[in-house]
Design brief:
elongated; mainly alpha
């Protein structure tokens, strides 16, 4: 982003806006969405594969036979873990993304690190950070529930586990993209009413 915006805006004398654009876009959109898409690919598929394997080997039926609810024992801990991990990883991705933009701007665009950091921080409001991290709570919920759903509905042995895993990742990625649009619109309407 630093390179694209830097070289693009340089033609119009707007290279100095790169820190603001990079900081804002990473905090509100790229950090949350890219982090959760990677989590959907890594963690969502793992959840679907693990629960799917348990399902095709009748371990889920054994849990039910012992009088334990598989939702409480298997699904809820994974959902809670995703609700905790997704925002934390997004904060780390935001920090690394802004620092990476700062380093590239310094070496490629001759923007000093102090100038970049100051302008990136000045352009951001607390609401930008809250919106970005707030989205990840919904994204984490989508990833965990999708993985658990496809895991619990797995049939057909090991081939079915592979299919459930693929379906889980594809569905979670599509739902994250759609919900990002909806959440961005909702947050925008809310902020517009709040800040006038």
């Amino acid at each position: 982003m630093s390179l694209q915006f830097g070289f693009g805006l340089e033609r119009f004398g707007g290279k100095l806006y790169v820190p603001k654009v990079v900081g804002l876009s990473i905090m509100r959109e790229l950090g949350p969405v890219l982090t959760c898409l990677m989590l959907a690919g890594r963690i969502g598929s793992g959840i679907a594969a693990e629960i799917g394997s348990m399902n095709v080997t009748q371990q889920i039926d054994a849990i039910r036979a012992l009088g334990t609810d598989p939702i409480k024992r298997i699904v809820i801990p994974r959902v809670l873990a995703m609700l905790l991990v997704a925002p934390l990883l997004t904060v780390m991705a935001d920090i690394i993304g802004v620092l990476g933009g700062m380093v590239l701007s310094y070496y490629e665009l001759n923007i000093t690190t102090g100038f970049f950091f100051h302008n990136a921080i000045v352009a951001l409001r607390t609401s930008d950070f809250i919106v970005g991290v707030g989205k990840t709570i919904f994204f984490g919920l989508i990833i965990a529930i999708t993985g658990c759903y496809y895991g619990l509905t797995t049939t057909g042995g090991t081939q079915g586990v592979g299919q459930s895993t693929t379906r889980s990742v594809v569905t979670a990625c599509i739902l994250i993209t759609i919900s990002d649009f909806i959440l961005t619109k909702l947050f925008w309407v809310f902020e517009r009413g709040l800040y006038g």
